Amino acid sequence: MSCTVFTHRLVAILNKDIELGIAINAANHAAIAMGTRIGAQALHLENYQDASGNIYPISGMPFIILKAKSQEIRKVLAEARALKNTQENNQKIESIAFLDTMTGGDYLEQMTRTAQQPEENLKFYAAVVYGPEELIRQLTKRLSLYK
To answer: Which of 10, 44, 97, 116 shows its CA 20 to 30 Å from the CA of 32?
Structure first.
């Protein structure tokens, strides 16, 4: 068996100015949405099996976790959208954001709050970006690893 050489990169960016639990919750919501958008094959979903026969389906792809301020997350997402609009289909970039308006109340209230705010008023709690390795490195090179 040989390891896959990954041509794409998956990165989460957490807002470093909010409580860690809130940031992790936001990143998990964004990661679920990204997984649904790009699918099991793109994520290299693998079945890890223990000696007892239990199966643990987990992505074999590295998932890099970075930290940034809300404005830096906004900038990465804007750059990702711009790149997505200029790339061929095989150079597809996907991005998902989780915003401050997406907490409190039920999801319908959250959708209403989000719809009432222009982008410049939104606080970015987390984002997940996926795309060709070099393009994602370019988008995130100025951000720090979350340790």
So the answer is: 116
Q: What are the CB-based long-range contacts (under 8 Å, 24+) for 114-118?
A: none
| Residue 117 DSSP label | S
CB atoms within 10 A of CB 31: 19
pLDDT tens track, the chain, 147 positions: 677 789 999 999 999 999 999 999 999 999 999 999 999 999 999 999 999 999 999 999 999 999 999 999 999 999 999 888 775 544 589 999 999 999 999 999 999 999 999 999 999 999 999 999 999 999 999 999 998
Model confidence, pTM: 0.91
**In the chain, domain spans:** 8-145
Backbone angles phi, psi at 105, to 5 degrees: 70, -170
Domain 8-145 has CATH 3.40.1490.10: yes
Question: 2 is written with which tokens?
Answer: 């040989």
In the numeric block, the tokens 């000696």 are attached to 51
Distance (Å) of CA 17 to CA 58, 84, 98: 29, 28, 14
Other Cβ atoms within 10 Å of 98 Cβ, number: 26
